[in-house]
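Cross-check.
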Amino acid sequence: MKELVEVIAKALVENPNEVVVKETEKDRAIIIELKVAPSDMGKVIGKSGKIARAIRSVVTAASSKSDKKVIVEIDNC
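Predicted model, tokenized:
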């Protein structure tokens, strides 16, 4: 999942070198933390959060065979 989020984020932003993705695993969830440059936050979130919702939908669909819930959190560096 980490690689999927990283590829999507790098394709969207102006500064792909500043994209950082961390994956942590808890009891019944996988948390993917996406960090981008402050100037790229709008591109990753999108108008009314549409792009962020789309990223979360793609990750959820990709993890459907897993028993764990995948949570994508978006922060700035």
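The CA atoms of residues 30 and 70 lie 5 Å apart. The chain has a mean pLDDT of 94. Passed to J.P. for a second look.
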